[in-house]
Amino acid sequence: MKFSPNDELLYNFLPFLVYLALLLYLGFSGRNKDSDENEYLLGSRSLTLPAFVATLVATWYGGILGVGEFVYIYGISNWVVMGLPYYFFALLFAWILAPKIRKADNFSIPDMFYRNYNRPVGLLGSIFIFIMISPAPYILMLAVLLKIFLNVSFIWSLIIGTLFSIVYVYNGGFRSVVKTDILQFFLMFIAFIILFIYLIRSDISLFDLPVALDKKHLSINGGLSWQEIFVWFSIASWTFIDPGFHQRCAAAKTPQTARKAIIISVGFWFVFDMLTTASGLYAVVLLPDINPLMSFPLLAQAVLPPFFQGIFFVGLTAIIMSTVDSYTFLSALTLGRDIIGHISLCEKFKDKNMPVKIGLLISAAAAVLLILLIPSVIKLWYTLGSLFIPALLLPLLGSYFEKIRISNRLTLFAMTGGFVISFAAFLWGELHQFDSFAQYLWNIEPFFPGLIFSILVYSMAILKNRTV
Questions:
Q1: What is the mean pLDDT of residues 159-183?
Q2: What is the percentage of the chain residues whose pLDDT exceeds 90?
């Protein structure tokens, strides 16, 4: 059946309008005018198992265009790099940390730092977390999609995407995030199941796909060095210091709910990884020489009829929006409550949640600035993970496990040194580029020097304590 250009525009735009209406309705219906801090930040700690799974699955998969970009460039190694290590660390998190986080009754990771260390450690940890969880990669992807769909300039799509992603969170807080994530959980699976069905019914069947691909896209490493793969695998330890995991565990009804929900979420991530990896490989075969970041949108335009294209676009938008609103809210919580709240007298605000609301606006503006500095999803992930995981990982684990906790002074030293060393290695590589690729000193990725420094500080301190 043939459609006129006007009909195609209408059929594709209609699902988007319905999605926006549902999103705003659910977002604003989560508002509680008399909400206290516990309600606004954690939904009164009443998160059920199904809601936990839906919000965690949707939020943790926000980098969908980056996934398409990775598959298009590196093939099935996407599962080795972006899938397997995250399952591993998520299951570890579920077993080791999830119940402890719920029992601790904190609001955020910095709460643990302030409680178990001193104020300087808490403040430095808050600053590092605020930068690390910037929603910049996800706002960038949202802007790219809106630029295509609305046919406006990138700057305008960036502004529209940023404002729209915070409008309902500002009023409704965590409960609005969860309500909209449940909708977006279903949309993400519907979108890729539709695309997958159309792909396997194309001229290239699922069984013919491996024959059509080259060796690079079928290899485990995808052309990446093993050091790069190890860095990406290590970056998956981001799970341990991801405020989204901590917030949802803290908001769960019970410690058992937190553990079970994460384990179930891993199963959903595996299924969705199979869908996205297969779809990305089809893009390699069907659409050679395209911008890898746009592989999923362009693939949908190539194989889906009108209306289904609109549904797929809504699915992509939903995946990204679920992470944009969550990370913007978490970034705002960290800035407003854990940084501003500890360096100023917030009692003057009648609305006790006002510091977080102010942080929401500042976080969005900071994300836009970061996008303009580093306009690449994969590079944003890689850079933020390489700089801040080495500084935060061991101090966070030490806050939950007393046996590996060291003194406040040494914790601050390990955090500062881990970041400074990784940043110095990163800066060296950026200043010594060859063919637009960073050339790191002795070919060592920035992640490792900072982490090694932190491990040495902790090892020596723990050994000294045991011998005293």
A1: 77
A2: 26
Q: What is the pLDDT of residue 35?
A: 63
Cβ burial of 343 (10 Å; 0-12, 13-18, 19+) is exposed
pLDDT band at 430 (very low <50, low <70, confident <90, very high): confident
Q: Catalogue all structural domains in the chain, each as residue range(s) with its CATH number.
A: 5-373 (1.20.1730.10), 377-468 (no CATH)
Token match 């994530």: residue? 181
Please tell me the chain's helix, strand, coil percentages from 3-state DSSP, rounded to the nearest 5. 80, 0, 20
Q: What is the pLDDT of residues 357-368, one digit of tens each?
A: 777 777 777 777
The band of 353, judged by pLDDT with boundaries at 50, 70 and 90, is: low
Q: What is the pTM of this model?
A: 0.82
Q: Which amino acid is at 295?
A: S
Residues in the chain: 468
Check residue 461 and report its DSSP letter: H
Q: Annotate 402-456 with DSSP letters as a single string.
A: GGG---HHHHHHHHHHHHHHHHHHHHHHHHSEETTEE--GGG--THHHHHHHHHH
- CA–CA separation, 70 and 226 (whole Å): 16
In sequence order, what are the residues at sequence separation of 6 or more whose Cβ sits closer than 8 angstroms to the Cβ of residue 301? 309
DSSP 39-96: HHHHGGG-B-HHHHHHHHHHHHT--HHHHHHHHHHHTTHHIIIIIHHHHHHHHHHHHH
